[in-house]
Amino acid sequence: MNAAVSLDEKFAQIRDCWSPHIVGELNGQHVKLAKLKGEFIWHQHDDEDELFLVHRGSFRMEFRDHVVELSAGSFLIVPRGVEHRPVADEEVEVVLFEPAGTLNTGNIRNERTREQLERI
Amino acid sequence: MNAAVSLDEKFAQIRDCWSPHIVGELNGQHVKLAKLKGEFIWHQHDDEDELFLVHRGSFRMEFRDHVVELSAGSFLIVPRGVEHRPVADEEVEVVLFEPAGTLNTGNIRNERTREQLERI
Questions:
Q1: pTM for the complete prediction?
Q2: Which residue of A has its CA nearest to B72?
Q3: Per the CB < 8 Å rule, is A78 touching B4?
Q4: Sign of the dihedral defined by the CA atoms of residues B63, B69, B70, B76, in that order
């Protein structure tokens, strides 16, 4: 039986910021939800393109040479190999679409890395 | 330069129902937008899973043995090989994630098939 997934209901289950949760899988890709607030680290994904779709709120994606502002109902694709840093002045709810196994901190491993993601 | 894509702005460019438009590509997958109204045809995708995320409105996905109701802010993944038919009583705006090259009518080719999709 295939079931609908409510983004609102799933986001309500997420407490921590910067902790992506898996809510779907298809064609080797994961659909993840994450709450962001504050500054993340500069990183890149050498082998994965990454899509950020804003569900609620707004944030900005910093690149080394420009900044992209994103608000609810807009998305951005960050190509593989491009350094980026998400920054959210207020908490924002973001849907991610990226290959299964994509590490949240890309080429960096530190205290912000989440190796194991919860499925909700 | 990477740019934000506004779903509202892109949907405003789409006039015909049942005509998916490509708005993004990543990792061999396409992000498509489609307006749906009325009944589509029964079909399946033998090799592709398909995600339907409702941006505005509501519709139902009929399967041979059950029906899933979808409203704005909810999504459904239809696994490969599973017959399905989207039905929308009122016009609905849907975001699709699926492998590049996925045919809208899957294993069926008829007058509703869209071989060439416009990029907007």
A1: 0.96
A2: A6
A3: no
A4: negative
